Amino acid sequence: MSIDYVIGCDVGTSGTKAVITDKGGKVIAHAYKPYGILTPQAQWAEQWPDIWLDAVVDTITEVSSKIDPHSIKGICISALYGGTGVLCDGNMTPIRPSIIWMDRRAEKESQWVSDNIGKDEILKVTGNGIDSYFGYTKMLWVKNNEPENWNKIKRIIPIHSYIVYKLTGELVVDNCSAGNIGGIYDYNTNTWSSDMMDRLGIDIDTMPMEFRNPTDIAGGLNEEFSSRMGIPPDIPICVGTVDCVASMLSAAMVNKGDGAAVLGTSLNWGFIHDEVPSNPDLISMPYCTDPQKM
After folding, report:
1. For residue range 1-34, what is the model confidence (pLDDT) as tens digits?
2. In 85, 124, 204, 207, which residue has its Cα 20 to 30 A from 156's Cα atom?
3. Residue 279: is it exposed, middle or buried by C-beta count within 10 angstroms (0-12/13-18/19+)?
4. Rounded to whole angstroms, what are the CA distances from 277 to 7, 77, 268, 286?
5. What is the DSSP code (8-state) at residue 69?
6. 103-134, pLDDT tens digit by residue?
7. Cα(first)–Cα(last) distance of the chain, in Å?
8. What's CA 200's distance to the chain center, in Å?
């Protein structure tokens, strides 16, 4: 009797990990590829998206070589919270490095949002506050400081969604990573806030508009990456989500009140609730099992 396998791949801040397990969760093989962070100035942190993509290819190739690749039944990608996400031109080519979560350059932009929109209104719409951590303030930094790049942008995509797009050709996004951008996501309707995007000057047409659950199938592995990784085409690729949420699910956080600590390059403590967010100093996002929970 043949054994079925699944692959999980996490694009982290300092490296990408892949693991292959059987249906019972037994680990068959794992791989890791490290990389660095670009720091052009103090408190800046950037990474080129294709460094992540190459690491995904290399680690999945390594683990899949340990078994019959025809027995792989699915692949799921999670990734670091990428701040700006991947800023792409009309050919879906990144136009600059992604400004990642630990970057703190957008302090002036955060102050502008505070002065012109206010933390109470941001909190009411998005369930989050105003801080240079969030992707929307980092996007404003690019808009204000790199207009030549800003004018080239046709798509703004969370990191794992970019990887999934490259592997499948399908452009989808999950609510968890969308909500983690802050500022431009309406947690009341679980979609982008056209009002906030207008007020911030971010074109809603640049955002992926197809929202799916992280466990949904985005599409099948395309021929290009099937060839690169040496595994069969059309293997189902899940929509995936942001890494801290995937880690919390793996720690068996499934019910209201559940909490867990996730330790990596940073430390996150998360808990599930279904209340209206009231503290702008906490980070809120829809949870992977139910967008109505945060």
Report:
1. 578 999 999 999 999 999 999 988 999 999 999 9
2. 124
3. exposed
4. 34, 28, 18, 11
5. G
6. 999 999 999 999 999 999 999 999 999 999 99
7. 42
8. 21
Q: Is 283 exposed, middle or buried (0-12, 13-18, 19+ CB in 10 A)?
A: buried
Contacts of 252 (CB under 8 A, 6+ apart): 258, 260
Q: What is the DSSP letter of 125?
A: H
Handedness of CA 249, 251, 255, 257 (dihedral sign): negative
User: Using CA atoms, how far apart are residues 19 and 36, in angstroms rounded to an integer?
Assistant: 21
SS3 percent helix, strand, coil of the chain, rounded to 5, is: 30, 25, 45
Longest CA pairwise span in the chain (Å):
65
Helix (H) or strand (E) holding 16: strand 15-22
Distance CA 33, CA 139 (A): 28
Distance of CA 167 to the CA centre of its chain: 15
CB atoms within 10 A of CB 205: 9
As given in the structure block, the two tokens for residue 210 are: 């197809």
- Across-strand partners of 47? 98
d(CA 184, CA 135): 9
CA–CA separation, 79 and 93 (whole Å): 19
Phi/psi of residue 251, nearest 5 degrees: -90, 15
Distance in angstroms (rounded) separating the CA atoms of residues 285 and 177: 7
